[in-house]
Amino acid sequence: MATEKVIVFNADRCTGCRICELVCSMSNQGEYNPNKSFIRLMANEETGVYIPVLDTQCNFCGKCVQWCEPQALSIVELGDAIMARKGATIGSFPIPVYSIAGT
């Protein structure tokens, strides 16, 4: 049985640079096009709050995590994410997964 992985996001570290979107689209679609990325950054520019959302097609390749300069993303096992969430501040949480393809 394969261990389930989740991407954990630390909102306190995210700068909103959107490198995760570019890296994902290049790794999975062969072009720098955020509209084809499996990770999308929802942003409130007025407050500077950013929240990534994963497409259900995400294969957890880890490229977004690898290239995240402020280290706002990490990949952990599902059990570890659950335990971390129990003691976490509002700034760290597993990223929700939605079907966003074609939007």
Q: What report would you give on this structure?
A:
25% of the residues lie in helices and 28% in strands. The chain is an alpha+beta fold and 103 residues long. The strands form two sheets. It has a three-stranded antiparallel sheet with strand order 4-1-5. The longest helix is centred in the first third of the chain and has 11 residues, at 19-29. The chain starts with a strand and ends in a 5-residue tail after the last strand. The relative contact order is 0.30.
Could you write a compact summary of the structure shown?
The protein is of the alpha+beta class and 103 residues long. Helix content is 25%, strand content 28%.
Draw up the topology in text.
Layout (H helix, E strand, L loop, with lengths): L4 E6 L8 H11 L9 E6 L4 E7 L7 H5 L5 E5 H10 L4 E3 L2 E2 L5
Parallel strand pairs: 3-6
Antiparallel strand pairs: 1-4, 1-5, 2-3
